[in-house]
Every structure is written in structure tokens, then in C-alpha cells.
Amino acid sequence: LAATAEGYRRKIENLESRCTMLQKQLAEMNERNLETRKENQLLQLRLKTIEEHQGSDRKSLMLPSQSSLRSNLQMEDEVGELFDNMYLTELKNGRCTPPDAMHADFDRYSELSRRNSRQPPHLRTNYMALAPDCIPPQDDTGDNISTTF
Fold first, then answer.
1. Cα separation of 50 and 46, whole Å?
2. What does pLDDT average to over the chain?
3. What predicted TM-score, i.e. pTM, was given to this entire model?
């Protein structure tokens, strides 16, 4: 009985030492795996930035005919042009304010009425869907509004 107990004790010690060795190997492999993942993430990030950089280079290259066409069409020179390149650049950079911020008392119905007042009587519309409780002006009656296209 003592001999079998001693045999089992040796087996247990052998298995414990093997388990300890396998735990060490597993920890080393986990560390290597973590390092490999970090390196892979860095390489993916570099690849993504390189692809973005190459894509922007391709977009910025223009054919000679396109570049000459672009220089001929400078909208900033046209008088009274609202949506020229300078305005769009300011809009993108956030330097201009939207109409709501400039005119706090801005009313949609009054703006439409103002625009409508510039039209000849046969082209006017009464916009009653916007203000159902509003009585239309005398010149905006059905007799003055065009019913045909």
C-alpha cells in the first residue's frame, strides 16, 4: 500500500511540474500573441494612412485640359454671384452664419410672401398651406392666381 501511495505521489508531482511548465509556455505564447497583435494594428494603421495619402494624391492630379478649364471658370469675378468659391470655402470653414442665426425674426411665410410679391399676378401663389389661419391679401385671391400651367 505504501509503494502504491509513493507511486501516485510521484505521478502527482510529475503532473504538477508538467502543468507548471505548460502554464509558463502558455503565458509566453500569450505575450507573443499580444505583441504580434499590437504590431499588426500598427501596420494596419500605417497601411490605412498610406492608402489615404495615395488616394488624395490621385484625386489632386488633374489632366492639363481640366486644369486650364478650371482657370477659365473663376466665379469670384462675376458680380452678384452668391454661391461662388469664396463663399463656399467660408461656409465649409464655418466663418459664415446660417440665415437662422442672422435673422432671428425670420419667418418662412413672410419670406414667401415677399418673394411672391415680386411676381406678376398670374404667377403668384397664395401659400395657404403654410398659414391656414391667415386671410390672404386682396390681390392674392383666386381670380388673380393662375390655375393653368
1. 6
2. 72
3. 0.32
